[in-house]
Amino acid sequence: KAGVTQTPRYLIKTRGQQVTLSCSPISGHRSVSWYQQTPGQGLQFLFEYFSETQRNKGNFPGRFSGRQFSNSRSEMNVSTLELGDSALYLCASSLEGYGAYEQYFGPGTRLTVT
Amino acid sequence: AQSVAQPEDQVNVAEGNPLTVKCTYSVSGNPYLFWYVQYPNRGLQFLLKYITGDNLVKGSYGFEAEFNKSQTSFHLKKPSALVSDSALYFCAVRDDQAGTALIFGKGTTLSVSS
Prior knowledge:
Chain A has 114 residues and is mainly beta.
């Protein structure tokens, strides 16, 4: 099976702009989670989608949003970009978000905000 | 609140020697515990998980981890380290009562010298 794919791999944006990141989960996986990784804060949970519904949300401002499509593909959007949004954004998929199922991560999108 | 601690920022070991990367956790309910590895400019790669059952779990690439409920620990081990094991290792926990998010430790850099 193909792994989790994320596009684009690298992005450079200017402060105040918005950005959309895309994630395609492993075939058959219905849960997609997003994480932000920075040197200072480490890995932080953004949100999780299952069957096109946001099931869980981390402690991030409303500028961070996401959605999931009927084929389980997911996008996340960050509006009004700030310098502090520069990070590696990781998408992870699993069969079922709850319970014992492990999450499989994509390679990430490296976002740089200037 | 859930939390994970990885007390060592870096672990250095010689090739062929055993290695241990430490992790302790705190959850309200029952823990689901995971170890991931991250190579430079890559996403996280799943190594192993503890859900229930035997306290010693075996995973990919010869890694294993020992769950200790009384000490709330889940240390990653390998009997004989390889130079190629050098990477960043993350311990993560999910509380079975608290949703789908994985809570990650800050990570431990493992350096294996030849």
